[in-house]
Amino acid sequence: MTISKNNFFKIERGGINTTFQDGGRKNLSHIGIPTSGAMDIRNYILSNALLKKNLNSAVIEFAYQGPLLKYYGDKIFAVITGNVKFQIIKNNNKIIEGEPYKVFLVQNHDQIDIQSTNKTVYGYLSISETFILNESWGSISTNTKAKIGSNNGEKLNNDQQIYIDHTNKNVSLTKLNFINSKIENIRVIKATNFDYFSKKSKDIFFNRGFKVTKLTDRMGMRLEGNNLENIVSSNIKSEGLIKGVVQVPSDGNPIIMLADHGTIGGYPKIANVISADFDKVAQLTPGSLIKFKEVSLKEAERLFQLYLLETKNIISQIL
């Protein structure tokens, strides 16, 4: 793709952890390549659906404080999803308070100031046009731990320019009334090493709360509050990991594997977060208290089908 120098964002402030993401990489764990991709899949999909784009299009994902972007070029349209506070600073210095899930116009020299997420972690910025990015293994998703993906595997930094393939798309100023719901319990199924843990620890896992610590990033979420006793072995032969699996190292504090998790690990696994609840897990901020609830594999599959149907129904309100 030929890079046009006429249409681009300049990053005035990079934000805390701003990266390019899409739906992630598929079927590469066997060669050590993580899936990566958007942390909150539903909000990612909605950002593209609101602009009537391919749902797997590249977006900017940000955490906590987002970027400040100044636009140069022909008009485009954009949308931000998630519980996000942001402003559009027009080229005449007029300030417009942004509304998540509402498409807005971006003109030459306008700025988008993504100030913060609200009691959540991740938000998404999609544009009507196409970011010009390099793919790695069929995805533009950036994994900063592995240094793979677009932007040379790095998060976005001050003074960078993000080029856009501009095709003059006409987009309606769509708005979606959407509320990010929360659930009291995180539902899980038993994992392969469930029986490594004492009966007391199993009872603790399902009946007491855990706190999300500050040691949390796109790779994993470390919990604390109730140590889990391993009665077999605190280390096992390294084996494959999947997103959402709950590992328990020797200190007894569980770790939930997130989008950029390693593909193998040697800590016993007590449970796995069901796919239907992963978006909500990804949005938990440090200090959040969570409880786990066991469901059967059959119930987990039913809940995921319901999650897909709910997402489809939400999108139908846009289209």
In a few lines, what is going on in this structure?
This protein has 319 residues and is an alpha+beta fold. The chain has helices spanning 41-49, 199-207, 278-282, 297-318, and strands at 8-13, 19-21, 59-63, 68-72, 76-81, 84-89, 95-97, 104-106, 111-117, 122-127, 130-131, 161-165, 185-190, 210-216, 220-224, 239-240, 245-247, 255-257, 264-265, 269-273, 289-294. The chain has 2 domains: 8-165, no CATH class; 185-316, Beta Barrel (Cyclophilin), CATH 2.40.100.10.
How is this structure best described in words?
The model has no long low-confidence stretch (mean pLDDT 94). The protein is an alpha+beta fold and 319 residues long. The radius of gyration is 20 Å and the shape is elongated. The protein is 14% helix and 30% strand. A seven-stranded antiparallel β-sheet has the order 7-6-9-4-1-12-11, with no helix packed on it. A seven-stranded mixed beta barrel has the order 13-20-17-18-15-14-21. The chain has a five-stranded antiparallel β-sheet with strand order 2-3-10-5-8. The chain folds into two domains: 8-165, no CATH class; 185-316, Cyclophilin-like (Cyclophilin).
Whole-number count of domains = 2
> If you average the pLDDT, what whole number results?
94
Characterize the biggest β-sheet.
Answer: 7 strands, antiparallel
Give the tally of β-strands. Answer: 21
Structural class: alpha+beta
pLDDT < 50 stretches: none
Whole-number radius of gyration? 20 Å
Q: Helical stretch count? A: 4
Beta-strand portion reads 25-35%
**What is the 3D shape?**
elongated
Note the run of SSEs as H and E. EEHEEEEEEEEEEEHEEEEEEEHEH
